[in-house]
Amino acid sequence: MIKAVIFDLDGTLIQTEELKARSYAQATHLLTKRMVSEEDVLDVFGDLVGLSREKVLQGLVKEFQIEFKSSLETEALFEIEQKLIEKRLEIYHEILEDVDMLSEHFCEDTLGLFRKIAEEKHCKVVLATMSHLLEAKKVTSVIGIYDKFDLILTKDDVENGKPNPEIYLKAIEKLQLRSNECLVLEDSVNGIKAAKAAKIPVFAVTNSITRKSVLESNLVQPEFLVDNMKNLSGQVFNFIQSMKDQ
């Protein structure tokens, strides 16, 4: 029996993955003195979705290190990473203050499922995100769901980010449930890997940034892949019902 549904945040409840990707792309474009286009960054960002901030920085700096070293006149990768995160956060925090822009990126079908589960008390609702708490609180407050969660876990609660299963194992521990009593909704390869490593059933709710990498990964069976988001609630509740019957 499913007793908790665990939601990822970025790319699952709100398309902040697109906004984060844009902030990284703009920051990289500016810091490399426009040698790297925003499109170049977006092309590689799909493989980095769901990773911790540190891993994303390392991935981008490694990919464009020649341009970064040339424009910033330093060979120190750590120094480049620091400059990139400072510029990227400056851009991203400006985006987070734009409530209208955030509202345009709500994942309405996933939010509809969330509200149905939360309001009708089908089971507990949990947030497990690689965003830091302040960012997660800001975004979920704009959506209007921050106080609806039974448990919130963020990057600040774990040492290892996805695809390491630590955040999901911690959720199970805090909920005092078994892995087969939970269900995860994730949009990225790294998030799906984390859930599967924790032995929790996981539905893939992809978006424009993650769809290609998720499909190519073959990590989820067809019944756990949501091709049409309008079918999300039906697929999830059918699965929950099937678990009741076992």
Automatic annotation (TrEMBL):
UniProt cross-references to SUPFAM superfamilies, sorted A to Z: HAD-like
Classification via InterPro entries: Beta-PGM-like, HAD-like_sf, HAD-SF_hydro_IA, HAD_sf, PGP-like_dom2
Cofactor(s) for this UniProt protein: Mg(2+)
Domain of life: Bacteria
UniProt KW keywords: Carbohydrate metabolism, Magnesium, Metal-binding
Family to which the UniProt record says this protein belongs: Belongs to the HAD-like hydrolase superfamily. CbbY/CbbZ/Gph/YieH family.
NCBIfam families in the record: HAD-SF-IA-v1, HAD-SF-IA-v3
Protein name (database record): HAD family phosphatase
